[in-house]
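Lecture 7, part 2: worked example. A protein chain together with uridine-diphosphate-N-acetylglucosamine.
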Amino acid sequence: MSKKTVLVSGGAGFIGSHVTVELAQAGYDVVIADNFSNCDETNYRGVCAILGREMPLVRMDFCDRGAVDALFAQYPFDAVIHFAAFKAVGESVAEPLKYYRNNLLSFVNILDAAREKGGLNVLFSSSATVYGETDRLPVTEASPRQEAKSPYGNTKVMCEDILRDSVKAYPGIRGIALRYFNPIGAHPSALIGELPRGVPNNLVPFITQTAIGKRECLSVFGNDYPTPDGTCLRDYIDIVDLARAHVCAVTRMCEDRMKEPYEIFNVGTGRPVSVLELVNAFEKVNGVKLNWKFAPRRPGDVTAIWADPTLAEKELGWKAERSVEDTLKAAWAWERRLAGK
Ligand code: UD1
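Predicted complex, written out as structure tokens:
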């Protein structure tokens, strides 16, 4: 296979930076594009350090159609992985138009440029949030999607549909939507990881920031859920495992191995873990004491969700490999490195 070029929109972010590393190490030429609206250059620098070279970086906003056209004129892309999007659930409820404009317009611009170019392999980063609350667990790709509980979640549902319809209408455009469960952790080098701005919304960055002393106390949201220990169950997937799934999906598209021109895969471990189990595992593997307390349920949280990852294993030849323990060690090493400890 000749060398393929992959555009990674949002390539300086948490998931994008890990995917860039795995793609480059698998032999792809990668072009990172980011507007740095929700991150600084730390992860970009880390990617270059891991790979031992300066990676091509384009500072641009995918909502700017002219900039997207200029990018596509500059590079002969074989595939694009689209991460550039806002992702804060609460903020999306307060500012829905900000989310609809950014998350939908950027994707429409990419697909339109792909259409004009005569086709492209497009990987969209979707979320298990599209499944909503369900008691039929684990969820397979055939599980019904439910009405989204937030504008953020709705942009994931809508972008999946935009991709599906574009694939149907425009010959040459092929698409894969990867539905992520809960990506956590950091690269084993501790050179790239999650860098939330302000107070973290997600569990693991809140845990690591509490352990390092940046936050006083972790609130465990809800202890009266109908689960074995009363806290919510999630499918926490290691960020490097998740990144490898992208390499498998891009390769499947570039090597013409798709069974349908639009495909969907769950990217999870198949292993439910409760909030308390995660907190306890973090303390145990890292030998640190975490200050935490129970707090009321967080509005919008589902009781339990985890993946049936069988399809990804069968079709992509991918499965999660790292244990929650190793992932939590990596998350802690990253937080300590950030703090210079
Ligand atoms: C959320 C989003 C999901 C998105 C993902 C991105 C929803 C409902 N959830 O997933 O769409 O793709 O982030 O990373 O849209 N928790 C605490 N204390 C905290 C933080 C979290 O107890 O300080 C609990 C939550 O109640 C939940 C679990 O930890 O049970 C995981 O929460 P979080 O990391 O925010 O992920 P999700 O809500 O599952």
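The pocket of uridine-diphosphate-N-acetylglucosamine is lined by residues 87, 89, 127, 129, 150, 153, 182, 201-203, 206, 218-221, 232, 234, 275, 298, 300-301 (CB under 6 Å). The CA atoms of residues 127 and 180 lie 5 Å apart. Keep this in mind for problem set question 3.
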